Amino acid sequence: MINNLKLKIEKAKIETDPFPHIVIKNFLDIATVKRLNKILPNYKDVENKDVIFQSSSETKKTIMPDSKVFKDLLKIRLFKQVNDNLERIKPIILKKFKENIIKKENKKFVNSKI
Hints:
This protein has 114 residues and is mostly helical. The protein has one domain (2-102). It is built from five helices and two strands; from the N terminus they run H-H-E-E-H-H-H. The protein has helices at 2-11, 30-39, 68-73, 77-96, 98-104, and strands spanning 51-53, 61-63. A two-stranded antiparallel ribbon has the order 1-2. It is globular. The two termini are 32 Å apart. The mean pLDDT is 88.
């Protein structure tokens, strides 16, 4: 799985409008997505203390990694595998966007402990 994801990221073209991003169709195979959908909690089942909202409209939630919900999900093999693979591709993503990051970084914070 990780080699396939790495290849997809490396081949993806960076789009710059409205901000630097890549779009990868079928990032996860459909079977994995279907299995994940069965184990992920329903939107309404996750309490506000366990999430951050991605918008002011509160229509999208991100489950916090230090929450009980996330820790319980990590006990499920499939979720742990996907999460581990996403952690493994983080350096690949950072490498892909390095030039864009350098252009936008605030020099004041480059060597900080943030």
